[in-house]
Amino acid sequence: MTGTMSEHVYKHIEVTGSSTTSSDDAIRRAIAKAAESVRELKWFELIELRGNIDGNQVAHWQATVKIGFRLDDE
């Protein structure tokens, strides 16, 4: 069978990003940091979202994400 779809193998890691701005920023920070040392990032899944409350306001966000990346074909 021929086609354009390739068969690859993927691995995943879990990382936690933090931010005083937003949960979205915490996710983006986690992905950006992982991208500094891991190539071929392909997807992410939010595993856990938590935060710190100070003075009845959200003071800090922490987002744990599972990030999938493709293993190199050799």
In a nutshell, what does this entry contain?
The chain has one helix at 23-35, and strands at residues 10-19, 41-54, 57-70.
Protein architecture, described:
The chain is of the alpha+beta class and 74 residues long. It has a single domain, classed as Flavin-binding protein dodecin (Dodecin subunit-like). The protein has one helix spanning 23-35, and strands spanning 10-19, 41-54, 57-70. The chain has a three-stranded antiparallel β-sheet. The longest helix has 13 residues, at 23-35.
Topology, element by element:
Elements: E1 10-19, H1 23-35, E2 41-54, E3 57-70
Antiparallel strand pairs: 1-3, 2-3
Put simply, the count of helices is 1
How many independent structural domains? 1
CATH topology: Dodecin subunit-like
Number of strands: 3
For this entry, give a set of tags.
3-stranded antiparallel sheet, alpha+beta
